[in-house]
Amino acid sequence: MATALTWLRRRLRWAAAPVWRLVYNLYERQLERQVQALPMPSHIGIILDGNRRHARESGLQDPEAIYRLGAAKLDDILAWSVELGVRMVTLWVFSPDNLGRSETEISGIFGAVEAKMRALAADPHIHRRGVHIAAMGRRDLLPPALLEAIDMAEAATRGNDQITVTLAIGYGGREEIADAIRAFLADCAEQGLSAAEAASRVSPEAIRRHLYLADMPDPDLIIRTSGEVRLSGFMLWQSVHSELYFCDVNWPAMRRIDYLRGIRAFQRCERRFGV
Q1: Which of 38, 93, 121, 144 is the most exposed place for a label (fewest CB within 10 A)?
Q2: Domain of 218, in residue numbers
Q3: Residue 205: inside a domain, yes or no?
Q4: 9 located within any domain
Q5: What CATH number corresponds to the domain at position 107?
Q6: Residue 56 predicted with pLDDT over 80
Q7: Catalytic member of 49, 51, 123, 250
Q8: Which of 256, 164, 171 is nearest to 211 (CA)?
């Protein structure tokens, strides 16, 4: 009897699957039409959260396999962004706080990112889409092999100008601001300025010029996956006017409709920039 019931449930799920796929596809197309009819965010920041939760739900235990799933999701984000006309995407991959994790897990993250950077550097689709790869963060926190892979991807895509994908790796918002102030003070010292003269030159614009990527426009929209409702220090300086969207799905399982919903939420906001 139990075997018959199991067989029946499987048959019902199999029969229902095409219907659900049809409903999903219709909804996705409707959502895309809504999004395409309104102005698109130029710069989207994404906090990649939920890799470990996704692994537990999927029964994965190998750290590098877990984070390779997350790295593979970058291909989807690239494709969706290019299709929608998003010009810049910044992905938070690894923070200084993550150094408190186990050595095995850290190695898994770094190994997955390194493999992905090497693959992107050699991928002809990246060049056809005009993807430029950049990175920001504290390079001294990263192993030499990963730095080499990042440099290779940046060099291979330097001439591309359709969309910029920036990896925030070894990145923390507080660290970025501290490093910016340190660089500002070093510039003042080189000019022979006194402490009082340096203090008189402090301004938001002066600090901004010393951020990791000073020319990067602020993100219009920041998306965080996994259901956590906080920025955790992501782009602290740049996010002052960003719209925020928190998504329940874990990063490796993020779907196109989740991305579209985030953009739709941005488009529904009345952006007044404090005015």
Answers
A1: 144
A2: 41-171+212-267
A3: no
A4: no
A5: 3.40.1180.10
A6: yes
A7: 49
A8: 171
Structure tokens at 120: 């992107």
- Report the length, in residues, of the chain: 275
Is position 184 within any domain? no
> In the annotation, is 218 catalytic?
no
Instruction: Supply 122's token pair.
Output: 């050699």
Kindly report the pTM of this predicted structure: 0.90
d(CA 202, CA 179): 14
Sheet of 163-169: strand order equals 131-136, 163-169, 88-94, 43-47, 221-224, 243-246
Give the CA dihedral 120, 123, 124, 125, nearest 10 degrees.
-70
Paired tokens of 218:
């602020």
Catalytic residue among 75, 98, 160, 218: 98
Structure tokens at 100: 């408190």
CB 231 within 8 A of CB 222: yes
E strand or H helix at 141, and its extent?
Answer: none
- Residue 203 falls inside a structural domain: no
16-38 pLDDT, tens digit each:
567 677 778 889 999 999 999 99
| Residue carrying the six token digits 């029946």 | 8
**Residue 40: how many other CB atoms lie within 10 Å:** 17
Give the chain's domain count: 1
Coil/strand/helix, residue 16: helix
- 209 secondary structure, DSSP code: T
The answer to whether 151 is a known catalytic residue is no
Look at residue 188 and tell me whether its pLDDT is greater than 60. Answer: yes
